[in-house]
UniProtKB/TrEMBL annotation:
Boundaries of every Histone chaperone RTT106/FACT complex subunit SPT16-like middle domain copy: 368-462
Top-level taxonomy: Eukaryota, Fungi, Dikarya, Basidiomycota, Agaricomycotina
Gene3D superfamilies registered for this protein in UniProt: 2.30.29.150, Pleckstrin-homology domain (PH domain)/Phosphotyrosine-binding domain (PTB), Structure-specific recognition protein (SSRP1)
GO process annotations (BP): DNA repair; DNA replication
Family classification: Belongs to the SSRP1 family.
UniProt xrefs under Pfam families: PH1_SSRP1-like (PF21103), POB3_N (PF17292), Rttp106-like_middle (PF08512), SSrecog (PF03531)
Keyword set includes Transcription: yes
Source organism: Kwoniella mangroviensis CBS 10435
Protein task: Component of the FACT complex, a general chromatin factor that acts to reorganize nucleosomes. The FACT complex is involved in multiple processes that require DNA as a template such as mRNA elongation, DNA replication and DNA repair. During transcription elongation the FACT complex acts as a histone chaperone that both destabilizes and restores nucleosomal structure.
Chain intervals with Basic residues compositional bias: 494-505
Gene Ontology terms: cellular component: FACT complex
Protein name (record): FACT complex subunit POB3
InterPro entries named among the record's database cross-references: PH-like_dom_sf, RTT106/SPT16-like_middle_dom, RTT106/SSRP1_HistChap/FACT, SSRP1-like_PH1, SSRP1/POB3, SSRP1/POB3_N, SSRP1_DD, SSRP1_sf
Region called Disordered, residue ranges: 183-203, 471-584
Amino acid sequence: MATVTFENIFHGDSPDIGKLRFNAAGFGWKTYASEEAPTTFSGHDVRHATWLRVARNFQLRLAMRQAEKPRITFDGFKREDHDKVKRTLDEFFNIKMETRDTSLKGWNWGKAQVQGNDITFQVQGKTAFEIPLSTVGNSNIAGKNEVALEFNPPPPFPHDPKDLSKRVPDELVEMRFYIPGKSMKSKGSDAGSDGEETDLDEDGNEVSAADAFHNMIKEKADIGAVVGDSIVVFEDILVLTPRGRFSLEFYPDSLRLLGKSTDYRVPFTSIHRIFLLPKLDDLHVQLVLGLDPPIRQGATRYPFLVAQWPKDEEVDAELNLSDEELAKYPDLQRKYEAPTFQVISRVLKALTGKKVTPPGSFRTAQGLNGLKANVKAVQGELYFLEKGLIFIAKQPILIDFSKTESISFSRVGGGIASAKTFDMRVVSKTEVADHVFTAISKEEVQPISAFLKQKNIKLLNEMEETVMDIDEPLSDEDEEMESIASEDEDSGKKSKKDKGGKKAKPSVQDDDDESDDEDFQSESSDGGSPSESDSDEDESGMASDASDPMMEELKRKQAKRAKKDSGSGSDAEKPKAKKAKKGD
């Protein structure tokens, strides 16, 4: 038997199909789609062979003696190839092939273990599936008894929408294990396995099975492991998105966020924007990192990372770099003694090579760098930068002016709150949905308009008609009401004129009532009797005007009747009657 060939075989996780050929010296695999040289292996390096059922028919798994490639897999074998493969390995390499049964019950309750370089999930002693530890990117405690495993993003795939064989495949991004109970010590390292005594931590507390499994995955998968020592570490940093307190560890090629139960590693290549912005309280400073791809926590994606420091907080930091390494970063200093936000932003700028974007030249009516606004029910801070705007909230929004079609101002509703604020709609050239920022103070219209005009942004002001509707002329009923109220000397003193030179509608209510804003006198009530409800005031002015003299006469009669009734009562009740009459 000189050569044995198997057609339509996959190598590893590759989507390409090819042929696998064995001979006495070794074996090699070559794809059909390429003319490149085949990938070859020596037969003397094979230690063990396993035959098992997988998604792509049957798999031949070879354990190798090479440390860089401890395992090699070939998928796509047919069931009838079993005897031929077994005989080939025995004759060429003197290797006995083992057949492993796979659980096909479809149960989701079993036993999770770490075997070699894999996480295996077994049901009744049979393997249901395996996960290579090299694909695990992060492990988190998602609940009291839940461990969430996040997987590394796949490498770039040659996407061709016309070629179905080169379409972007679906990828598993997260898997959760429910592991109840306590961790027990045993001869093996399997979390949650039976043992003679309960596992305890350094403080003597019992360790849950979920915590033990989580710690074992982090240790075996080398999660968060980086090459070399950290350059500098900043402890107890408040991160608003995703919320928590983390230690920021800087490495030559990545940033690590180490929390109590979460651990994120952010490569510098995924940081594409850096913003350093003061909060509107003038007491804190925010650092915003734009990430692509975003970091994940469960099903939530975080395309932005937002950290915050007090403005006056200072830190002493010394970088763990040799003189040769420090020479590679001209903007870095060996020692820093400055505000924390300045030190961290400078280190980030030097290590990532990205520009740190400060606040733009925009100033609000109060002279601030930003203003308060809402997106739906979420309140945040809106900053106008030189090349775009950014809304900082739980999930920040970044809008580039170069991708903006137009910006329009509008006001919705007729209440006092809506008249004092306005909405700003940003229409994008690329996105289908518009971004609407609401509850912006009306006094910011002029600063925003002036700034956007400098940036050559198309502006649409839909507020003018609404503004004109506020200053309506007084109706005949209002003039009649004004003449009636002028008979009262106190009300006459309170009447005054509005900005347009017209008389504001007088109020005949008591001094305790709140006075309306001058700009909204025409929308306020007609100043009817204090006993009328708000719904009555919204009725026609004619009805309210006609009812006022009648109500006054009715009150006088009620006061006289109360005075007569009080005459037959006790002396203690007389002052009350006098007070009631005085109130009329």
